């Protein structure tokens, strides 16, 4: 098999969309399912998701959040209890209408999101203030008939995600929860995936249907498009009233509860691919890499093999004692060059090369995936690989931050806005706060208000569209 058979055949710069798809498929993260709009997650892709799940679970648990499970089928009659909320999803809902050959009376929706089902149960479980706060997270799938062009991890008709739903006795406590979750999301994405995010609120037009307001974290991708990385919603009492989620206070007076919901999906994996990948393929941050270090033994004959393999095993054992995920590529019949290309395609953060000459020098060659840098490392310094992996993680975030900064522009003139948006990026532009201007900008340029960053309030400028007094400086961008 030639390098061309396994390698990426387009460049990231020239054909970003095709490059992305090839990386997903050829790095063996996922593959297309027989049903349009669905993908199959392969072991390496699922391993990354498991790593993120483990990180979130630990942080959720520290915040008093426990995991639960919800069924996938929701009766239509239940969805009708919060019609405004459900109307936003209705065009995308898959319906179950038959059981075998028999029609069922109440159509069943395949879960587009779980508010209606969760809050029906919460109403049963909550009686008094002693039952609150109630904080449950659900790791599950959601199904939405994707009408736009599908793309693995970014737009599929079924996707993995977590959705948390909390209930509180006061508005203040619920709003504090919204921000706590957003901070967990931001810190986790930056620390684990090495992707910088901007946090703030969605506009009234872009908020989650049924929410009082939505907080969000947004990132800019290398092709200049924005990607919503996660959201945390303050629901107020918009769901507790129709679903009768009530509690009796210490004086036995009944009140409607205050609620939040929040979630991230496997589009985080898609963001990681886009932000860090290069023309050779995937580039994985060490913290989420299924394999952090791959060792490639190099020898030409049995004599060399007998000399090299014991040292390889010794190095492997030392690294595993340091809880490093390490793999030895001892496949027969493949050249070292082929193996190097294969592991570069799969994005393994660090490669160790070791042959008879290296053993004589009492050192190995290490190759960093993110910058393709090669150096020698003495046998006595092998345990430094722990530090090297930490350095790679930090450098990847630093590089991504620099790239994000280059893709962010301050704009105050609408003509310039229309010109710059064609090249993509985050456009920071003053806005009067009126939906009419927001809608006109979207209609004329295709750019949404992605996020109104915290602290971006500004009354000293003129709205980029109507020239009235500004209220804030949101980030506009075209998005996925």
From TrEMBL:
EC number: 6.1.1.15
Main location per the UniProt record: cytoplasm
Catalysed reaction equations from the record: tRNA(Pro) + L-proline + ATP = L-prolyl-tRNA(Pro) + AMP + diphosphate
Repeat as UniProt keyword: no
GO cellular component terms, A-Z: aminoacyl-tRNA synthetase multienzyme complex; cytoplasm
Compartmental location: Cytoplasm
Keyword annotations: Aminoacyl-tRNA synthetase, ATP-binding, Cytoplasm, Ligase, Nucleotide-binding, Protein biosynthesis
InterPro entries reported for this sequence: aa-tRNA-synt_IIb, aa-tRNA-synth_II, aa-tRNA-synth_II/BPL/LPL, Anticodon-bd, Anticodon-bd_dom_sf, Pro-tRNA-ligase_IIa, Pro-tRNA-ligase_IIa_arc-type, Pro-tRNA_ligase_II_C
Superkingdom classification of source: Archaea
MF (Gene Ontology): ATP binding; proline-tRNA ligase activity
Subunit field text: Homodimer.
Record remark: domains: Consists of three domains: the N-terminal catalytic domain, the anticodon-binding domain and the C-terminal extension.
UniProt name for this protein: Proline--tRNA ligase
Gene transcribed to yield this protein: proS
